[in-house]
Write a structure and sequence with these properties.
Length: 425
Amino acid sequence: MKPLKSFAFSAMALSLLMATGTVSAEKSPGKYCDTPSRCINPITKYGAVTSPNYLASVAGLEVLQKGGNAVDAAIAVASTMNVVYPQMTTLGGDNFWLIYNAKTKEVKALNASGRAGELATIDFYKKKGYDKIPSRGYLAANTVPGTVSGWDAAHKYARANMSNAGLPWKDLFDSAILYSQKGFPVTASLARWEEINVDPKDSEFRNLQRFSGFKQTYLKPDGSPYKVGEIMKLPQLANTYKLIAEKGANEFYRGSIAKKIVADLQKHGGVLTLNDFAKHTADWVEPLSVDYRGYKAYNLPPNTQGMASLEILNILNNIDVKKLGEGTTDYYHVMVEATKQAFADRCTWVDLNTGHMPRKLRQRTRKKEMLVFVQPVRLTVVKQGVKALIEQNNFQCGACCRVAVPDRACILKQSLKNHSIPSKL
C-alpha cells in the first residue's frame, strides 16, 4: 500500500503544480492574445511551418520530418493549400519566392508569374466591345498560370545548391493528392466564400455557378454550396497532381494538362494558346531590400508590388511609429498615407514591363520628402537556417477569373482583371 500512497501524493503534487501554472498562464501579456503562448513567438530548434490552413501546415511539417528541406516543405504546403484553401489560392495562379540559403548566405528571389497570352491584345478586346478586361469568365483568363513553374525552379535550385538536397519531386504532393482524392472537411472560411461566390445578384464578380467547370468542381451535385464540416472531394484535381508528381512541371506546360486547359478555354472563346504555355518560364531576379530599424527587409522587384511594400517601410523609417500608439487614429492615418504614397510612386515611376525605377525611389532621403503627406499580409517554412517564403497564387479573390477547367479542376487566375483598355499602347 505504501507505493500506492506515494503515487497518490505525487499525483496530487503534480495536479497542484499544473493548477498553479494554469492560474499563472491566465494573465495575458499582450493586447491581442488571451494566453502567453499565443503572444510569444514559437520557439523551436529544427524547423517551423505556418500557413492559413492547418492541413497544409501539417503537410509541410511531414515533409520536414521525412528529411525534406524548407523549399520542399513550402511546395507541399502550397500544393495542399490549392486543395483545402481554394477560396484564396489555386493551381492556376502564380507564386513569388524569397529563399535564404544558409550555405551560401544569400537571398534568392524567384518570380513565377505568368505573362499575358499572345492573343490578349487591345484590338481583341475592343472588337468584342470591351473598354476594360472582364472580371470573370473565359475572356478574363488571359495570363499563363505560373505556380507549377515556380515550384519546379525552386525545387531544382534547392537540390543543386542547399546543404540538404531534400526529397524527390514526386514525394512533395502526397498530401495534396490525399485530400483532393479522399476529401477534406470544409472550413468556416471556405463555407463562407462558397456562399458569397454563388450570389446570383452579383453578375460581375460572383454568381459563379454560371460557369459549368466551377459548378461541377466546387459545388455539391445539386448545385448548392458546401457547409462547414461537410467533406469536399476534388478527384479531377487529384488526377492533375498525380500527373505533375509523376511527369514533372513539363506536363503542365507542354503535356496533357496544358492541352486540356487550352482546349477548354478555346472552346469557350478564351485567349490562351499552347504556345503561351510552352514559352512560359519562371525568372530568377535580383531582390530589392531596405534597412528597417536594424533589420534588412527583402521583396521582389516589378512586376510585383514588392517595391511599394519596401517604400512603405522606408517612409516609416522616419517616423516614431511606437510613439503613435498601436491602434490609435494617428497610427492608422500614418499607415494609410504611407501606403498611398508608396503606391502612387509605383504607378508614376515604375515601368512594369522592364522593371526599371528611378534610383531615388530606393533612397531613404526620398522618404523624407514624403513626410509632409504622412505626418498627423504569406506562408513561411524555416528549417535550420534555411528559410523559404512563398507568396502563393491568388490571395485576393479578385485575382481569380474563377473559370475551372472541368477535367483538370484547375481554377485559372486573372492578373489583368479590370484593366482599362487604352486606344493604343
